[in-house]
Design brief:
This protein is an alpha+beta fold and 80 residues long. The protein has one domain (23-79): Ribosomal Protein L30, Chain: A (2-Layer Sandwich), CATH 3.30.1390.20. It has three helices and three strands. A three-stranded antiparallel sheet has the order 2-1-3, with no helix packed on it. The radius of gyration is 18 Å and the shape is globular. The termini are far apart.
Length: 80
């Protein structure tokens, strides 16, 4: 009799698929953080940016998308 719950092998496969199929976003800083509020500067640093024309590729989680939205006037985004 088969249990309704997936086996550990199936769980590992599902975990692998959900982790590795997460969408990526390429974020490029296009404006300076001079004369910007501290929270915007901290958000830029948390995204891995800090200099103009620096680009990072991050996973499109809700947290990261919120950070990008907060500093959208300082960065350019595109799908990776």
């Amino acid at each position: 009799m088969r249990l309704p719950f997936p086996s550990s092998g199936e769980l590992n496969c599902l975990r692998f698929l959900t982790v590795n199929t997460m969408a990526k976003v390429r974020v490029t800083q296009i404006r300076s953080t001079i004369k910007r509020p501290k929270d915007q500067k901290a958000t830029i640093v948390a995204l891995g940016l800090g200099k103009i024309n620096r680009t990072v590729e991050v996973e499109a989680t809700p947290q990261v998308l919120g950070m990008i939205n907060k500093v959208s006037h300082l960065v350019k985004t595109e799908e990776a």
